[in-house]
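Continuing the series of single-chain predictions for the mutant panel. This is the parent chain; the variants come on the following pages.
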Amino acid sequence: MYGSLDISVSGMVAQRTRLDVIASNIANRDAILDAQGRLNPYRRRLAVFTPGDPTAKSPAGKNLGVQVAAIAHDQAPFRKVYDPTNPYARPAGSPDAGYVDYPNVDLATEGVNAIEAVRAYEANVAAAEASKSMVAQALRLLA
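Parent structure:
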């Protein structure tokens, strides 16, 4: 009876995690140094979903909902920005002289992904509300 509610809640949790990852990407879009101060551009993260929740079983024995399987690193190349005055620019004589590697985070892509995550979260909220309403109506019929 609560399977549909479990599915909606797992979707909300997954989309919230995805939105946290997107916010982290936006916050670090210009970070070229790591915590130790070394040149190590931030690499964009992605929330990887997998169907099912191993802790929730339906009466048919199948996993319900969705879960975040991992937070993966996007392997796309870094953005190259020409800035020969930057102390982290590649030295003269190298193939990319004067260029600095910046994180592979595109603000427009992250914005679109954030809107999509928010809409998916809202859809799961609506589905959860519909499930609650159906259960309440069924209980009223039984009473």
